[in-house]
Amino acid sequence: MMNSHIQLGHDVPEAEEYNKLRVKAGLSPKDIEASRRGLQGSLFIVTLRLEGKLIGMGRVIGDGGCMYHVVDIAVDPDHQGQGLGKRIMTEITGYLDHNAPSTAYVSLIADVPADRLYRQFGFEETAPASVGMYRRF
């Protein structure tokens, strides 16, 4: 059950607090200027705040028509186990259900064991028909 003091919002976080949450949640840090640009370019953002502090978030990026990608699902480890990841994904799924055309392709890269969360929202592995790939800079 979500703590009643946690505020759900759709604000664009500051690049610094975004990076702080990413690192605390075990994700890689990003360049501050790149973070500013990326956050502003989001199609949809979910934020969870406790006393103003960013403790959870998720985003949808893409072209707004054909392709959508779910990214940055992060919950502060001090607040995990309270259903916050599920709350973030519920908001994201609601956005996609109301905005993505029926022919849209919605993707995400799931870290294990977070893949269990995403399966609850209808996501499934693409292999063996296709595999996720990336390029590091």
Tell me what the structure shows.
The protein has 137 residues and is α+β, with helices and mostly antiparallel strands. The protein contains four helices and five strands; from the N terminus they run βααβββαβα. The chain has a five-stranded mixed sheet. The chain is globular.
User: Which blocks of ≥5 consecutive residues have pLDDT under 50?
Assistant: none
- Let me know the average pLDDT: 95
Biggest beta-sheet profile: 5 strands, mixed
How many H/I helices?
4
Strand arrangement within the widest β-sheet reads 1-2-3-4-5
Proportion of residues in β-strands? 15-25%
Distance between the termini: 40 Å
Number of strands: 5
Tell me the helix content. Answer: 25-40%
What does this entry show, briefly?
The protein has 137 residues and is an alpha+beta fold.
